């Protein structure tokens, strides 16, 4: 690889689900293009795409209450519909790959798991009832159920009820058509397919420099993690899908579009149990409401996870903080990201979010007992000895100037492209992996405007709703949801 003078058509920096998805799309659209994947770790999908490092296991807004905020007495569903639309695009593409034999048996990466919302307290029960009324007839939320009956909730999710006071007001919604996605397995399968059809994968290659040359190509420099010897190659197009490290690399590229951006790292922990008798009593992803002052990504949830065919339960997240931008990153990552053009943004965003800083401080100082008490708000009879802590992956939230010019912390994902479309990178976090396909379609449209129209027939073949909204066509939505569910082995 290092000795090749001819530029590679596409270099993907980072071996996560975003790079794997973009590579998969491009390989089908332009099968003659050369593709190289550079990964700093010994294997792909070991940072945010690893199933134990992320909570994005099928974010489709079926149960995540932060996507349906209450404002001025109204339940706003626009964000929930948008996220669901995006997830359906991902499902359609995965279904196409399965049908085409480009992905293996779906149970290797996706399994049916009902999605539930669960709340307690009179005001929260009323909120959930109104959320149900707002969504129950929407074509992307078919079969949404609501109940305040503890007996029904116990049937849906047995761990939620025993030990709870009978006088407590509770409510839940459920959609049986939810799923659990192992994005680590999905990424590995996508990369295996890329390599089998001619792409190159180079692991233990840490990229340290990006420079645009006079002919418009990019010189990518770095070092071998083992041996510390340098490497260099050139590329016509570069995608930086390096998770938290994307900010540093885009800064190194010198593109003007990255100016003013900063990153705020948030780490986290989960409680996990693999005890069969406990796991058997819970089948679902159950989301509650976030604590006051908590960031949206910290909404508590009790999840069934299926990894390598083995079911476990995961509860959290418990937020934490380190200055690292990756789980395997450096303690200097945050400080190394400071530039003259983003210092004001970072300071301003920090001062505007002191409640978030205080929340993180209290979370970091929380004892193991305190963490278990939070779990018992969901599962009152949970025994501390049945659960153990695991450390999740790092999330780097975007700090930028908003439309009003004021500094903000943005909880979401954002594509930053420059160099006349020759380089792009992804910043941010949730909903992340679940919406990888539509995000990468945005990259294609942004970076290849002269080709996207010619690609449209093939993109529509792979993703039938491409360029349209399923929410605008109820019959088509019902057909596509049923079709992808059948292909992927999910409930309708």
From TrEMBL:
Keyword Metal-binding attributed: no
Protein encoded by which gene: mqo
Catalytic activity: (S)-malate + a quinone = a quinol + oxaloacetate
Pfam families: Mqo (PF06039)
Signal peptide: none
InterPro entries, sorted: FAD/NAD-bd_sf, MQO
GO molecular function, one term: L-malate dehydrogenase (quinone) activity
Pathway listed: Carbohydrate metabolism; tricarboxylic acid cycle; oxaloacetate from (S)-malate (quinone route): step 1/1
Name of the featured protein: Probable malate:quinone oxidoreductase
EC number(s) per entry: 1.1.5.4
Keyword Transcription assigned: no
The entry's keywords: FAD, Flavoprotein, Oxidoreductase, Tricarboxylic acid cycle
Annotated source species: Protaetiibacter mangrovi
Recorded superkingdom: Bacteria
Family to which this protein belongs: Belongs to the MQO family.
Enzyme kind, highest EC tier: oxidoreductase
Cofactor dependency: FAD
């Amino acid at each position: 690889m290092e000795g090749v003078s001819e530029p590679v058509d596409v270099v993907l920096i980072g071996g996560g689900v975003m790079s794997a998805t973009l590579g998969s799309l491009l390989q089908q659209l332009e099968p003659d293009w050369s593709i190289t994947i550079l990964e700093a770790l010994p294997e792909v999908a070991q940072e945010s795409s690893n199933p134990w490092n992320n909570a994005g296991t099928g974010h489709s807004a079926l149960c995540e209450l932060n996507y349906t905020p209450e404002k001025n007495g109204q339940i706003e569903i626009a964000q929930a519909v948008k996220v669901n639309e995006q997830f359906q695009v991902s499902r359609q593409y995965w279904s196409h790959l399965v049908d085409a034999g480009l992905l293996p048996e779906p149970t290797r990466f996706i399994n049916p798991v009902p999605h539930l919302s669960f709340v307690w307290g009179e005001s929260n029960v009323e909120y959930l009832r109104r959320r149900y009324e707002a969504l129950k007839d929407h074509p992307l939320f078919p079969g949404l159920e609501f109940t305040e009956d503890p007996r029904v909730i116990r049937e849906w999710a047995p761990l939620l009820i025993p030990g709870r006071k009978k006088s407590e007001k509770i409510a839940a919604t459920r959609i049986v058509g939810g799923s659990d996605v192992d994005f680590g397995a999905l990424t590995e399968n996508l990369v295996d397919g890329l390599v089998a059809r001619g792409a190159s994968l180079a692991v233990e290659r840490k990229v340290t420099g990006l420079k645009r040359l006079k002919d418009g190509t990019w010189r990518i420099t770095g070092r071998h993690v083992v041996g510390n010897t340098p490497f260099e190659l050139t590329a016509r197009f570069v995608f930086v899908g390096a998770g938290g490290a994307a900010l540093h690399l885009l800064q190194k590229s010198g593109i003007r579009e990255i100016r003013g951006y900063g990153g705020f790292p948030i780490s986290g922990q989960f409680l996990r149990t693999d005890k069969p008798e406990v796991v058997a009593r819970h089948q679902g992803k159950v989301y509650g409401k976030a604590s006051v002052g908590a960031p949206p990504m910290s909404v508590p949830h009790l999840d069934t996870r299926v990894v390598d065919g083995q079911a476990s339960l995961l509860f959290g997240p418990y937020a934490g903080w380190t200055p690292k931008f990756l789980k395997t990153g450096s303690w200097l990552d945050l400080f190394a990201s400071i530039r003259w053009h983003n210092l004001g943004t970072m300071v301003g965003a920090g001062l505007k979010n002191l409640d978030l800083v205080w929340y993180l401080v209290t979370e970091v100082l929380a004892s193991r007992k305190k963490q278990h008490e939070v779990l018992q708000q969901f599962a009152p009879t949970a025994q501390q000895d049945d659960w153990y802590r695991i450390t999740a992956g790092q999330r780097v939230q975007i700090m930028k100037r908003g439309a009003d010019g004021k500094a903000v912390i943005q909880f979401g994902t954002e594509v930053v492209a420059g160099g006349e479309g020759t380089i792009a990178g992804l910043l941010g976090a949730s909903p992340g992996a679940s919406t990888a396909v539509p995000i990468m379609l945005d990259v294609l449209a942004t970076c290849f405007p002269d080709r996207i129209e010619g690609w449209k027939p093939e993109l529509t073949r792979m993703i039938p709703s491409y360029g349209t909204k399923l929410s605008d066509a109820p019959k088509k939505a019902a057909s596509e949801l049923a079709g992808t569910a059948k292909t992927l082995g999910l409930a309708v």
